[in-house]
# Entry
Amino acid sequence: MKTLPLSLSAVALLSLTACTDPAYVSGSAEDRDQFRKTKNGALIGALAGAGLAAVTDGDPILGAAIGAGAGAVIGNVLDKQEAELRAQLDDDVRIENTGDRLILTLPQDILFDVDSYTVNASLQDDLAKVATSLDKYPDSTVQILGHTDNTGSASHNQGLSERRANAVADVLLDNGVPFGRIDAIGRGEDQPIASNLDEAGRRQNRRVEIVILPTAT
# Structure
């Protein structure tokens, strides 16, 4: 019965240091943002470590500490990879760092012609750079998620999203990313990020996401 409070205490302590650490208080806005993402990685690792200890009847504080250390390392690696990709990729590619993964969003309007799943030549170079980054940081798996708007039938959109996800995966494979690291998934029209009631929203929903997920080493 004491395991859960102990685990939460460890995580709460980590949360507190995120806002009181001198590096956070005195740093620039950019430094604070990077510091926050590293702390997020540590918190995620702490939760995982504490949870593992609870399940195995181990020491939750020790598990949280070990997990936090691993999470902080992951956060630092993602920060470096994010910075490098931002410097290399076209501005149309949106990059989000959540602290435990990188999400690269490519609008389908620049990736593909209408109703096509052939990757446009203009994006081949960007995808080659992503592949080079994945080769440099090999301790991760990659999800390629295809999304559409709701124009047309749901079955057509599902098939199109799958073909487009596979097309992007093929470019990464052709540029040396191992097959075992990639999972291509079509989401169809099921996960919109904007309204499908106007063209501006539909344009946002037509996208391919490359999700880089660090793996434990």
In short: Helices lie at 3-20, 22-26, 29-55, 60-88, 108-111, 121-136, 154-174, 199-205. Confidence is low (pLDDT under 50) at residues 1-16, 62-68. The CA atoms of residues 149 and 205 lie 5 Å apart. The beta strands are 94-97, 102-107, 140-147, 182-188, 207-214.
